[in-house]
Amino acid sequence: MFRRQSRSTIALAALLVAGAAVAGCSRGEAQESTASEQAFSDPVTITNCGRESTFDAPPERIITMNAHVTETLIQMGAGDRIVGRGYDDREDVLPEVAEELEAIPGLAEEYPTWEQIVDLEPDLVVAGMRSAFDEKEGRSRDALEAAGIDTFLFSEYCGDGFPDFSMLETDFSQLGRVLGVEEGAQELTDSIVDRVEAVRATLDEAGVTGTPTFFYDGGEAEPTTIGGVGIGQLIGEYAGADNIFTEGDRPYLATTWEILGERRPEAIVVLDYGATSAEDKIAYLREQPIMSTTPAIRSDRIVVVPLADFFESSRMATSVETIARELYPDAFGR
C-alpha cells in the first residue's frame, strides 16, 4: 500500500529550494504561515483506491481535473483553494456554484498537461475519472505523488463499482477531513442522500415497482448502455427505472439491437453528451427497425438526462429526480 511522505517534510524541502529566490521565498513564507495556522492537531490519514496518504494540514493549492469535482469542492466550501480546473468549457454549471467556479482559472478544455499541473505547484490534485491520471499522458498518480503532490480519485473509478451511497459517503467524508471542511462535506452528503431517498419514498408510496428501462449511451452499429455495477445502475434503482442490462462487471457495456428487441424495454433514458445530440439519438431509435417495435418507442416513453448527471456528485440526485418525475408523473402530482 502506498505510504505518502509527510507533508511537512515536503513543505520544508520546497521552502529550502524556494529560499534561493526572493519572490519564491516570500511566497513560500506565506504558504508556511498559512499551513502553520491551519495545521491539524493530529495528522489525517486516509486510504483512497488502495493508496494511503497522510496530511499534516489542509491542502492550500488544489487542482480539480473534472467539472463535477470542481462543483463538489465548491459545495463543500473549499473552492477558494482551487488554483486551476480541467474541463473549462462546461456550460451547464450548477447555478449555486457558477460565480465561484468561473473565477477559478480554467486550464484546458479537457485535462491539463503535466507541465500545467506542476507549474501551479499544487499540493493536491483531485479527479473524478481514472483517465485524469493517465500514465501515458505523464500525469499518473505515481508520478504526481513522486513529485510531492497528493492525489485523490473519486471511488466511482476505483474499479469496485458503485453499489450504494456508502462509497460517496466515504469519499466525501475523507475529503471533508483532508480539506478541513467536514461540516460542509457532511451537509452535501446528507442533501444528496435525502433527495434520492425522498424520491424513492414517493415512488414506494405510489406503489411503483419499476419499469424495464434501456439506458442509451450511444452507438448505432453497436449500442452502448449502462451495466449493473456503476452509478447508472444505482440511479435507476432509486428512480424506478429497472436497468435491463445488469450483467457484467463494468459500468458501461456494448450490446446488440437483437438483444434489445428480446428484452422489450418499456422506457428509455437517453444520455445527452458529445457530438450527437439527444434529439438525433432519439430520432435514430425511432427509425431503428428493431427498436421501433419496442413498447418504449411505441408509447414514446423517453427521458433525456445529461451525462454530466451520471457522475458521483450532487447531480446524481438531480438525475434520480428527473427520471422518476418523467416516468411516474402521477406519483408526483403532475
Automatic annotation (TrEMBL):
Regions annotated as coiled coil: none
Question: Which UniProt key words apply to this protein?
Answer: Signal
- InterPro entries from the entry? ABC_Transporter_SBP, ABC_transptr_periplasmic_BD
Q: Record's family? A: Belongs to the bacterial solute-binding protein 8 family.
- Give every Fe/B12 periplasmic-binding domain span: 61-334
Descriptive protein name = Iron ABC transporter substrate-binding protein
Leader sequence range is 1-23
User: Highest taxon of the source?
Assistant: Bacteria
